[in-house]
Amino acid sequence: MVKGRYIIFICFIVSLGGFLFGFDAAVIAGVNSFITPEFNLNDFQKGWLNSSVSLFAAISMLFSGVVSDKFGRKNVLIFVALLYSISALFSAFAPNFTSLVTARIIGSVAFGAALVLVPVYIAELVPAQYRGRMVTIQQLAIVLGFSAAYFSNYYIQQLSQESTAFVQKYALDKNAWRLMLGIESIPALIYFFLLFLVPRSPRWLLMKGKENEASAVLQTVNAEQDVPGLLTDVKKNIDEAKNANKGKLVDLLKPGMRLILLIGLVMAVAQMITGINAVFFYANNIFEQTGIGTDASFVQAIFVGLINVVFTLLALYFIDRLGRKPLLLAGLMGIAISLSIVSYGFSKATYTLSGPEISALNKEIDSSKLAQMKDKVYDSDVSFKNAIKSSIGNQLATKYESEILQSAAKLNPMLILIGILGFVASFAFSLGPVMWVLFSEIFPNYIRGVAVAIFGFINSLTSFLVTQLFPWELSNLGNATTFAIYVGFALLAFVILYRILPETKGKTLEELEAILVK
Question: Which of 410, 440, 462 finishes a domain?
Answer without folding.
Answer: 410
